[in-house]
Write a structure and sequence with these properties.
The complex is a heteropentamer, with two copies of chain A (252 residues), two copies of chain C (207 residues) and one copy of chain E (258 residues). Chain A is built from nine helices and twelve strands. Chain A is α/β, with parallel strands linked by helices and 252 residues long. In chain A, helix 3 packs across helix 4. The relative contact order of chain A is 0.17. Helices cover 80% and strands 0% of the residues of chain C. The radius of gyration of chain C is 20 Å and the shape is flat. By secondary structure, chain E is an alpha/beta fold. In chain E, strands 1, 2, 6, 7, 8, 9, 10, 11 and 12 form a nine-stranded mixed beta sheet that branches. A three-stranded antiparallel beta sheet of chain E has the order 3-4-5. The chains are: A alpha/beta (252), C mainly alpha (207), E alpha/beta (258). The complex binds adenosine-5'-triphosphate (2 copies) and magnesium ion (2 copies). One magnesium ion (MG) binds next to helix 1 of chain A.
Chain lengths: 252, 252, 207, 207, 258
Amino acid sequence: MSILSMSNIKKSFGDNNVLKDISLEVNKGEVVSIIGPSGGGKSTLLRCATLLETIDGGCLKYNGIPVTHTNESGKIVYEKNLNQFRKIFGLVFQNFNLFPHFSVLKNVIDAPVNVLKKTKEEAIEEALALLKKMGLEGKENMYPCDLSGGMQQRVSIVRALAMNPDILFFDEPTSALDPELTGEVLKVIKQLADDKMTMVIVTHEMAFAKAVSDRILFIDKGLVVEEGTPAELFDDTKNDRTKQFLMNYNNI
Amino acid sequence: MSILSMSNIKKSFGDNNVLKDISLEVNKGEVVSIIGPSGGGKSTLLRCATLLETIDGGCLKYNGIPVTHTNESGKIVYEKNLNQFRKIFGLVFQNFNLFPHFSVLKNVIDAPVNVLKKTKEEAIEEALALLKKMGLEGKENMYPCDLSGGMQQRVSIVRALAMNPDILFFDEPTSALDPELTGEVLKVIKQLADDKMTMVIVTHEMAFAKAVSDRILFIDKGLVVEEGTPAELFDDTKNDRTKQFLMNYNNI
Amino acid sequence: MAPGMVKTCAIFFFTLLFSLPLGLIFTFLHTSKNRVISGIMHFIISVLRGTPLMLQLIAVNFGPWYLFGIETIREKLIPVVIAFSINYAAYFSEIYRGGIESIPVGQYEGATVLGYSKAQTFFRIILPQVVKTILPSVTNEIITLVKDTSLASTLSYAEIFLLSQQYSNTIQQFTPLLVAGVFYYVFNLVVTVVMSRVEKKMSYYKI
Amino acid sequence: MAPGMVKTCAIFFFTLLFSLPLGLIFTFLHTSKNRVISGIMHFIISVLRGTPLMLQLIAVNFGPWYLFGIETIREKLIPVVIAFSINYAAYFSEIYRGGIESIPVGQYEGATVLGYSKAQTFFRIILPQVVKTILPSVTNEIITLVKDTSLASTLSYAEIFLLSQQYSNTIQQFTPLLVAGVFYYVFNLVVTVVMSRVEKKMSYYKI
Amino acid sequence: GKKDVKLKIINEELGAEYYGIAFRKGDEETCKYIDAAVQELVKNGEYKKIADKKDYKDIVGNLMFLAEDYKAKEYDVDITNAEKRTFTIGIDPEYPPFSYMGDDGKYTGFDIDVCQAACDLLGWEMKVFTVDWDSKLLQLDAKECDCIWSGMTIMDSMKEQDYVISEPYYYNTQVLVVKEGKGIKSSKDLKDKVVAVQKGTSGASLLDDDLKSLKKTFKEVKTFKSFLVCFTELESGGVDAVFVDYPVAKSYVAKKNK
Ligand SMILES: Nc1ncnc2c1ncn2[C@@H]1O[C@H](COP(=O)(O)OP(=O)(O)OP(=O)(O)O)[C@@H](O)[C@H]1O
Ligand SMILES: Nc1ncnc2c1ncn2[C@@H]1O[C@H](COP(=O)(O)OP(=O)(O)OP(=O)(O)O)[C@@H](O)[C@H]1O
Ligand SMILES: [Mg+2]
Ligand SMILES: [Mg+2]
């Protein structure tokens, strides 16, 4: 059974049909990358999946349980208790969205303690283990503003992992970083992939997407233009739009 | 005779010796790229060359004319009339620094008219030609805020070119841009290189530096660690620090 | 003139005590989704900010009598503090609103995705950051408050300005007014120093 | 009460006329490299901002007499406008300073590299941007000014507040004060509308 | 220069008037008790003791010549058996010698002393309340105080509005204070000159009423919140004359010309 199942998702902002008809299944342990030109709808898709936007059509399921259903008049109705689903996934934002007034440790343990109602000791123990794993040992008492962008992003990954999600979403996790800091974050995500973490990653780092993904979706104008394994998509590109897009990246 | 000659430049901020001893000659028509890790002193070098920072030691010359000389007590003294040198070079900033309250056209012609005392007609004529060449036809009356980052950076290149400089400096001209917009700016710089414009480019785009430069300097900790043609530097790297740095870029 | 100083300080402290939380309530009402409530609050705030405090003092003092025949209160500290608190709450509420709006939406989204409830998000994540961002504006208002206490003289509340005016009649010289001026200046210096201490205390993080 | 309204408007317009440019001069002196000048200006501004305007009105009115035996001016509009202009210039100068400091250093550097002189940089590049950024703060001060005109009653300058207070004591009713309140409110509405027009006019670009 | 300024009083007995105590509309009861208590003070000599205090006598001279009238009156209240209460006296604290702020910062004055003595007789607790002279009757209405007793001129308008007024206890005139050496000898010389009055005083209302025709000859009448501002304006040349109660004029001019 797939962890995430999005079928025929539609989403408009006013007259702007941002997602026209997108379906996506993610199974346990899979890493799916989403690539595509700016404005294509990648972030919107992720925001719909993470319940930050409401969909206008289609169906969204987590672990087989529907989050939405369509009522008699064709309108999408969301479940009452959405927090049960929020426990299933985690989201890593492009610009981290760490809580600046909390120390690194507090950023990581605050939600486990206040949302999952873990004991503080337990939360701290888990947090320290995760921070260590992500190369952030000894940074517990620093504040986000004192960390480099790469470290901040790793903290935000730890924050998401501390909630013990079944699936992790990334929206361009490195695009707000200095080029040289990009590497450290990508390395951490690679490590998660090696640990068989289920992930959906929106990225502009083609080389990285190629290296880490089981499957890649190319999205443009609210539709999945092309989908396949990295080998299929990069080395045997079928669609002209995809070809053009990939060329832009390769010729610099 | 070299257009820019920097010899044994030293620059400190307080106790921080940012430039320890850097020499750089740039001849007419040459394209020199400067690469290196963050904090290495690349921007500082460019700012010293463009008279935005004062050097603490060494000598700076434009077209063979010294901008600085060392007085009896060993202190660096700058020439009185620095604006004569400012006519020789142009600088393209990382974050463009366009004047937001001026239209594109006014951004380009304001300095020629008010600094070089050109007539408005002449300045407009030249500006339109340059804008056209840089693919900005029809954008004259727009304001910077209405342009994409890539277009803004191209306008700022046009603004610099309109002063008819002998040499153009770029400080990471694409690092404030979305990945997909990077290409258009790099294309424009390439075009300038093809036109034999003399340029010094600080960049993190290794592929680009390789493709466009006659010579590349790798700067770290205020010193030139390695210098050579792209082929020498990339394919026959001698220094360990350089190797390590280039690896970081290649392994993503 | 010492009793005048004490009475000035009384206005100052009670006004802060009541207007700071009242401002938050104003903000909630003003940003309420109910159009009627937010509209009314908007109007009230604009009147409070758009008319002189001197007038509001007179209105609070005599209003109940004129409108309902209710006896006015002899202890003038009460109408003074009521008028000041309502007036300053309007200013604080606008500062709060600006502060809340300045918090990037990402902070809300970050909290939502982690499963925080709305109340948790506001009180754990947003409010502490708002407090930091609005401190300079709050300091400005507090300095204005120190000076505005002199308006209480309108209701013959014997704060330092009125007392020094009365005393200058006794000794037929303006020196007491000068003393009052120094008092206000020093009071404001103290406010500035205290608030910059508080700001420094909050500067352990940057936004 | 119409003559009162006219006199209130007179304070308003003359104060703006003089304080806006005077504020710029204050800013220049305050940010001067000469430590003595900037220190003195800093103190003057802090006194002007730290003491009640009511006191400053009395000081401007009687100061020349007490200090130098110079006869006071009979047309009270003059001391009123002098006191208001100096006081508001202090506020405006702080707004200007904040505005100038908010312009990114890149704007100066961009202009320097292009060969602009210091004066050209300030008047062609910096000031126009400052004007845009400070507009909201200036609007706030102007609204405060509208209300502060009521303080001119201290010097028996017959503006609307004084007149309406006298009239309401004569007829023993509140109505004239209410009328004054409406006047201030409407005046401020007009200010707000005009200033938001100006802001809109400047919104052809974003910073 | 500042030091050379000498002031003088022109007493043309403009607007002869009486001082009295104002009580709220319908509050005859309180008025009777106070009147009766004052009568008792006059009888037992307490009143004279207060009137003879140096601070007061120096300023206004004889405070007694209307007091004798009290002796003749009959009041149907028993002051030895008054119900306990607090009695709040409304004063203008800028009106020496009737009510003002003493050097110790406490409110004092002839009126306050008499009120205290009366309250002692009645067994009432006295409280002092400072009113804004401009809106004193409003404040009385609104029960902020129980009387206005502060060198207050009895005006016809007060009686018309049904305020309860005590026996008059002091005879007073309005006078003009001018600078010496300016050639002003009488009110006629004030043609086209600027005159200052204090807000809410009987002088101010007289000019709008009985002395309307005199006011018309002035260039302007300016109202200020306090006497000090009026007099300072006069000294510093802001106005040509101050129209003011005689005791105030006398006390100020005496101090100034010392
Ligand atoms: N909250 C919103 N309101 C209105 N329009 C929106 C909103 N969010 C996104 N859009 C629009 O939806 C479209 C798709 O945006 P989206 O951010 O999903 O693209 P993207 O593929 O993530 O692009 P990028 O690579 O630049 O992040 C764009 O046209 C954008 O303007
Ligand atoms: N104005 C300044 N005052 C003090 N220190 C400065 C200043 N400008 C730069 N530095 C310091 O000088 C060093 C070199 O900075 P510089 O910006 O030249 O590096 P860079 O090579 O351009 O790095 P990057 O790739 O991040 O732009 C850094 O340690 C920096 O902190
Ligand atoms: Mg996106
Ligand atoms: Mg740099």
